[in-house]
Design a protein that fits this description.
Blueprint lengths: L6 H5 L2 H9 L5 E5 L2 H6 L4 H4 E2 L2 E2 L21 H5 L5 E5 L22 H21 L4 H7 L4 H34 L6 H8 L3 H20 L2 H7 L24 H27 L3 H27 L1
Antiparallel strand pairs: 1-4, 2-3
């Protein structure tokens, strides 16, 4: 089996998948400057390549690109475009969530279950990681260390249950309530789930940021030691190898985590208010549909605050 170009990265690599999903929050994007120029240009050298570079290694069509998800920003299309029609644009962070799918003629432009489940999975992983690494429950820590061996298999099963059943199940339930509240049978439950699933990108990013604060503040001082002795060979390159491990600002850690989570809630409410108007054409329907999702967002952020600070 031979995988050409970045096929492995695009379809198999889990890290690449999550990076692509979160790249919709990025403040940069690669897009065609003038789509009309691309329409007239044959062959599509940005896709098939020429003497100046490879065809798109990610197998996407740069001339039709409308989302960051499957673009690796390798810049090959900049070299293969003879019309200098590709650009790297700056944009407000998170604006990628509001890009509307444009149909099958745009490669990878439609929202998919795989993208939704990546968001669910990152949320589930964060919860499990927190309980294991920062939580007060010795039972979980023993299970990860296979004490006893059967506990590890219970942990794996519970991890799958949280990431692939509990988190998506709760969200699908609230999506169902959203569709019922709007009372618009023309809008499918699938569309409601997949469009609102972008919530899990900012929720996941903010939750992982709050999780990282709990790692960095207690352990950040150890970096000074690593800078001077990166290979543990007894070096002291910068005179900091013997700086003692000292937690810093840990008294402010809960406040920082709560601030981050509230900021994430505000972002989600802003994005959601725009997404609900895109899904439901009637303002009356949109307002009714928005109520269950607001309750969902308040609930999940309240649960995260409780998880982090008690």
């Amino acid at each position: 089996m031979v995988y050409e170009k970045r096929t492995f990265c695009l379809y198999f690599c889990p890290v690449s998948g999550f990076q692509g999903l979160y790249s919709n929050f990025a403040a940069t994007e690669i897009r065609a400057k003038d789509p009309e120029v691309c329409k007239k240009h044959i062959p599509k050298t940005c896709y098939v390549g020429n003497e100046n570079g490879y065809g798109c290694p990610w197998n996407v069509q740069p001339y039709n690109l409308c989302q960051n998800t499957n673009c690796g920003m390798c810049l090959e299309c900049f070299g293969t475009c003879p019309h200098d029609n590709m650009a790297m644009n700056l944009r407000p962070p998170g604006s990628g969530f509001l890009e509307e799918p444009k149909g099958k003629e745009h490669a990878f432009a439609e929202y998919s279950w795989s993208e939704a489940f990546k968001g669910f999975t990152m949320m589930g992983i964060m919860i499990v990681f927190f309980l294991i690494m920062q939580g007060p429950y010795g039972l979980f820590k023993d299970a990860v260390r296979a004490v006893p061996i059967g506990g590890y298999f219970i942990f794996v099963f519970a991890h799958i249950l949280v990431s692939f059943v509990l988190v998506p199940g709760i969200f699908v339930l609230f999506s169902f309530f959203t569709r019922m509240a709007a009372n618009n049978k023309e809008i499918s439950l699938k569309r409601v789930v997949l469009e609102f699933a972008v919530f899990f990108i900012p929720i996941g990013l903010i939750a992982w940021a709050a999780f990282s604060v709990g790692i960095i503040l207690p352990n950040g001082s150890y970096l000074f030691h690593v800078f001077s002795d990166p290979f543990a060979l007894g070096w002291d390159l910068f005179g900091t190898a013997h700086v003692p491990w000292t937690p810093f600002l840990t008294g402010y850690m809960p406040h920082i985590q709560v601030f981050l989570l509230i900021a994430g809630l505000v972002l989600c409410l802003d994005y959601g208010a725009k997404i609900v108007r895109r899904i439901f054409p009637s303002m009356k329907e949109a307002k009714k549909a928005w109520v269950p999702m607001v309750f969902f967002l308040m609930t999940i952020h309240g649960a995260l605050i409780w998880l982090f600070v008690g």
